[in-house]
């Protein structure tokens, strides 16, 4: 018995028996030789009434004509063939003989395709089914406990009711999104390169527009300044002799008031300057 095996030593419900050599030597199983094949297995009890009856007739050389009738004379453990469908299915019952008319079943064995199995009893079947159902319930409750909704004082635990069709659509969408995300991960390098190149092009265009605007603005500034710089400034008061009085047009107050501001009105600036030159030339001969 293995250490891991938790079955008792006399429990063979988890095992089966088959002897290929015996089948090849004796042929297919029949109602006459099936009990001999069963007697070679570990399910057979060597202290049963069947073995005692065989030991009594072993040395006489006489075969037992009707073994079932002979077993009625004994009391104790016996084996009997209760059902047969040769050559593939047989049922043998182990029972305790109490009287010639009364026998108590203890266990059942079935032979299927030359393999001998012990049939489970009612307690084992019910306990196994109950344990299986309880395990399924426990696992399902554990799963529900993970997704249990939050408790609210007004409604308590309310589970959302979802249409199965919408659930299937959501699953399809999630599958599509997953496939698209996988494809995007494989091509993640290409969009980043394209974004970098587009950003560089935008920066270059902005820089080119800024340079063009600056050049156009610089072209307008020298045109307005050349008209002002090209004209000669009025003569200072020291150029006029002190003995002659200055004309009213060339007084400091009038000259300051008639001098145009640079960059305000460049087209009208040369006209008053030319008049000043003529008046200054008229004043110089008188001196």
UniProtKB/TrEMBL annotation:
<dbReference type="GO" id="GO:0006357">
    <property type="term" value="P:regulation of transcription by RNA polymerase II"/>
</dbReference>
<feature type="compositionally biased region" description="Pro residues">
    <location>
        <begin position="234"/>
        <end position="250"/>
    </location>
</feature>
<feature type="region of interest" description="Disordered">
    <location>
        <begin position="168"/>
        <end position="200"/>
    </location>
</feature>
<keyword id="KW-0539">Nucleus</keyword>
<protein>
    <recommendedName>
        <fullName>Mediator of RNA polymerase II transcription subunit 6</fullName>
    </recommendedName>
</protein>
<dbReference type="InterPro" id="IPR038566">
    <property type="entry name" value="Mediator_Med6_sf"/>
</dbReference>
<dbReference type="GO" id="GO:0003712">
    <property type="term" value="F:transcription coregulator activity"/>
</dbReference>
<comment type="subunit">
    <text>Component of the Mediator complex.</text>
</comment>
<dbReference type="GO" id="GO:0016592">
    <property type="term" value="C:mediator complex"/>
</dbReference>
<comment type="similarity">
    <text>Belongs to the Mediator complex subunit 6 family.</text>
</comment>
<keyword id="KW-0804">Transcription</keyword>
<dbReference type="InterPro" id="IPR007018">
    <property type="entry name" value="Mediator_Med6"/>
</dbReference>
<dbReference type="Pfam" id="PF04934">
    <property type="entry name" value="Med6"/>
</dbReference>
<comment type="function">
    <text>Component of the Mediator complex, a coactivator involved in the regulated transcription of nearly all RNA polymerase II-dependent genes. Mediator functions as a bridge to convey information from gene-specific regulatory proteins to the basal RNA polymerase II transcription machinery. Mediator is recruited to promoters by direct interactions with regulatory proteins and serves as a scaffold for the assembly of a functional preinitiation complex with RNA polymerase II and the general transcription factors.</text>
</comment>
<keyword id="KW-0805">Transcription regulation</keyword>
<keyword id="KW-0010">Activator</keyword>
<feature type="region of interest" description="Disordered">
    <location>
        <begin position="227"/>
        <end position="287"/>
    </location>
</feature>
């Amino acid at each position: 018995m293995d250490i891991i095996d938790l079955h008792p030593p006399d429990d063979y419900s988890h095992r089966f028996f088959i002897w290929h050599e015996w089948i090849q030597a004796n042929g297919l199983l029949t109602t006459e030789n099936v009990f001999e094949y069963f007697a070679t297995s570990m399910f057979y009890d060597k202290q049963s009434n069947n073995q005692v009856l065989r030991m009594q007739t072993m040395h006489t050389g006489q075969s037992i004509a009707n073994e079932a009738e002979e077993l009625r004379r004994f009391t104790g453990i016996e084996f009997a063939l209760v059902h047969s469908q040769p050559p593939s299915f047989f049922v043998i019952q182990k029972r305790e003989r109490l009287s010639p008319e009364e026998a108590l079943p203890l266990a059942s064995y079935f032979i299927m395709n030359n393999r001998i199995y012990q049939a489970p009893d009612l307690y084992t079947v019910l306990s196994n089914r109950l344990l299986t159902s309880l395990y399924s319930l426990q696992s399902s409750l554990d799963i529900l406990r993970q997704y249990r909704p939050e408790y609210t004082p007004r409604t308590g635990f309310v589970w959302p009711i979802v249409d199965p069709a919408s659930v299937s659509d959501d699953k399809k969408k999630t599958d599509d999104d997953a496939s698209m995300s996988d494809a995007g991960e494989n091509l993640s390098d290409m969009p980043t390169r394209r974004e970098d190149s587009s950003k560089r092009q935008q920066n270059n265009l902005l820089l080119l527009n800024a340079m063009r605007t600056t050049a156009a603005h610089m072209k307008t500034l020298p045109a307005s300044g050349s008209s002002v710089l090209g004209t000669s400034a009025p003569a200072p008061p020291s150029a006029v002799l002190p003995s002659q009085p200055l004309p009213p047009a060339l007084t400091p107050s009038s000259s300051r008031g008639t001098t145009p501001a640079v960059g305000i009105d460049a087209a009208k600036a040369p006209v008053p300057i030319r008049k000043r030159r003529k008046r200054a030339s008229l004043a110089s001969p008188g001196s």
